């Protein structure tokens, strides 16, 4: 799959081939620019020397993993907190999905079930789960019955609400403009 969330070819290539990298990028996508968040999995994999695995991340010494994320340039504005969240996510994936994130969506009966599975992930609330569900549907071809409805507004065709709608630099600009307009309207009320 061709993903362009990091806006860096090598980082986007990793996101396209690694469901774990995509889940981690989405987890990191808070309080930092989207491109920085989705470059995070690539940065981690470069520092490890290979692609990410849930088993390795889950079993890594927490202090060592925090140091890996904090190394300059830091993977996130809050490397200690996010290192813990990434490890919790990895441990959950090992325990519930044999370390294979694609199992989350591989046999989901419908969009509602997939949304529930995503919301059960550590660090994923309803909004993040809906955005990730929309990303799966719009860009990864994961479209169980009712996926658009389960994704809520993020599942709407032609919307410019979230990372699910970013496919190039132009769509990134449209998503940013829509978010700024939404903030402006909210402030005015």
TrEMBL record:
Gene3D superfamilies: Hypothetical protein, domain 2 (1.10.340.30). NCBIfam families: HhH-GPD-type base excision DNA repair protein (TIGR03252). This is HhH-GPD-type base excision DNA repair protein. It comes from Nonomuraea purpurea.
């Amino acid at each position: 799959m061709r993903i362009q969330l990091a806006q860096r070819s090598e980082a986007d290539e990793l996101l396209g081939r690694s469901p774990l990298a995509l889940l981690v990028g989405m987890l990191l996508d808070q309080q930092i620019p989207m491109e920085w968040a989705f470059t995070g999995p690539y940065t981690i994999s470069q520092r490890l020397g290979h692609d990410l695995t849930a088993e390795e991340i889950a079993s890594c010494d927490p202090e060592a993993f925090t140091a890996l994320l904090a190394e300059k340039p830091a993977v996130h504005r809050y490397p200690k907190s996010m290192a813990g969240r990434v490890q919790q996510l990895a441990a959950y994936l090992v325990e519930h999905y044999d370390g294979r994130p694609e199992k989350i969506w591989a046999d989901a009966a419908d969009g509602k079930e997939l949304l529930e599975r995503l919301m059960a992930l550590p660090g994923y609330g309803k909004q993040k789960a809906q955005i990730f569900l929309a990303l799966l549907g719009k860009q990864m071809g994961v479209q169980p019955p009712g996926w658009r409805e389960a994704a809520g507004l993020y599942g709407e065709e032609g919307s410019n609400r979230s990372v699910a709608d970013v496919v190039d630099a132009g769509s990134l600009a449209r998503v940013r403009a829509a978010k700024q307009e939404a903030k402006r309207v909210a402030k005015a009320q």
